[in-house]
Amino acid sequence: MMKAGPLELGDAPKSSTPKSGVNRGVSILDFILRLIAIMATLGSAIAMGTTNETLPFFTQFIRFRARYNDFPTFTFFVVANSVVCAYLVLSLALSIFHIMRSAAQGTRVVLILLDTAMLALLTAGASAAAAIVYLAHKGNTRVNWFSICQQFNSFCERISGALIGSFGGIMLFILLILLSAVALSRR
Amino acid sequence: MMKAGPLELGDAPKSSTPKSGVNRGVSILDFILRLIAIMATLGSAIAMGTTNETLPFFTQFIRFRARYNDFPTFTFFVVANSVVCAYLVLSLALSIFHIMRSAAQGTRVVLILLDTAMLALLTAGASAAAAIVYLAHKGNTRVNWFSICQQFNSFCERISGALIGSFGGIMLFILLILLSAVALSRR
Q1: What is the DSSP string of B47-108?
Q2: What is the average pLDDT across A154-178?
Q3: Is the model's pLDDT at A16 over the cut of 80?
C-alpha cells in the first residue's frame, strides 16, 4: 500500500491523471451520499420508533392506544433502518479509504456486495411497512380489515412520514452501487 | 461474433488466459443464474396470479371468495415479478454478449445499475406481500384485523408459497450483482 501511493502519484502527470481524478471525485460523492443516507435512515428509524398515540377516551374492553410495536412489521422497519444506518456509519471508513486510494478494487467489490445486501434489507423493511400503512389508511373491506386512520390520526401521519426517509435511502443506495461500479470500470 | 471466438482462443496461451477465462466463466454463471431467476419469478407471478378460492357456502351478505386481486399488494407482487421476469429475459442478450466479449465494461456497469433497480423492485413486491401474508396468518387483534387463514386455507397456502420464488430471486440478484462487480474488477 505504501509503495502503491507514491508510485501512482509519480505516474499521475503522465497517463492516469484523469481516471484517478474521476475516481477520487466519485469516492468523495460516495462519502457525501453515505452521510445523507445516514440522516435519512436514522430519521426514519427515530420517527417510526417514537410513534405512540393514546386516544383521550376508552371503553371497558378496549384501550385506544396505538404504538409502532403493535405491528411486527413496524418493529422490523425500525430494526432494518437501524441496522442499515449502523452499516452506513461503518462503511464511511471504507469510503474514506477509497478517497485516499482511488485505485483500490477488492474493497470496492466488497462494498458493492454489502451495499446490495443492505439495499435489499432496507427495501424489505420500507415496502413491508408501506403495505401496512396502506392498509391502515384504506383498510380492506373484503376481509373486514377496517381503516384505523380515522381514529388514530396522528399515528397514521407519523407512520406514513417515517417511510419517506427509507425510500430516500433506497434511491441513495442504488446511486452508491452505481458509483462503485463506475469507479471499478474506470480504474 | 464468429471471428471473436477463434481470435481469443488464439490469444489465450500468450497473455490474457487467466483473467479472460475467469471472466468468461463468470459470464456463463451469470447466464445460468439468470435462467434460474426467470423460472423463480415467473413461478411466483403465476402462483400468485392464479390464486382464487371460493368457499362452498355463503350468507346473504357475504360471498366467501378470495382472489389475489382483493389485495392491492398482491397485484403489485404479480406486476413486480412479471416486470422483473421480462427484464431478466431481455438481459439474457447482454449476458450472452458478455460471454462472447468478456472484456466489456460499459455494458457491465449498465447491467449492474439495471440489476440493482430490479432487485429493489422485486424486494419491494416480495416483502410487501410477505407483510400481508403474515397478517393473513396471524391477524392483528390490537386493531381488530382478524386472521383469514382459518377460512381461506388453500388461499393462504398458495399466497405463502408464491413468496418463495420471489425471495429466491432476490438472493440470485444479489449474486448477479456480485458477479458483475467481480468481472469488472478483473478485466
Answers
A1: HHHT-EEEEEEE-SS-EEEEEGGGSHHHHHHHHHHHHHHHHHHHHHHHHHHHHH-TT--HHH
A2: 94
A3: no
| A150 touches B at CB < 8 Å | no
* The three three-digit cell numbers of residue B175, written as one number: 449474486
Q: Which among B116, B178, B184 is the nearest to A184, CB-wise? A: B184
Residue B176 in this model has a pLDDT that exceeds 70: yes
Whether residue A12 is contained in a domain is answered as no
Within a domain: A178 = yes
pLDDT at B149: 86
Residue of B nearest to A71 (CA): B140
Q: Number of structural domains, chain B? A: 1
Residues of chain B with C-beta less than 8 angstroms from the C-beta of A108: 181, 185
Mean pLDDT of B58-86: 85
Q: Does residue B59 sit within a domain? A: no
Q: Is B103 on the interface with A (CB under 8 A)?
A: no
Among A123, A135, A184, beta carbon nearest to B123: A123
Residues 6+ apart with CB under 8 A from B3: none
Tell me, what's the pLDDT at B134? Answer: 93
Domain span at residue A166 reads: 23-50+68-186
Mean pLDDT for chain A? 85
Q: Does A45 contact B at CB distance below 8 Å?
A: no
* Residue B9, domain member (yes or no): no
Please tell me the distance in Å from B11's CA to the nearest CA on chain A.
23
Contacts 24+ apart (CB under 8 A), B55-64: B55/B151, B55/B152, B64/B151, B64/B152
Banded model confidence at residue B3, pLDDT cuts 50, 70, 90? very low
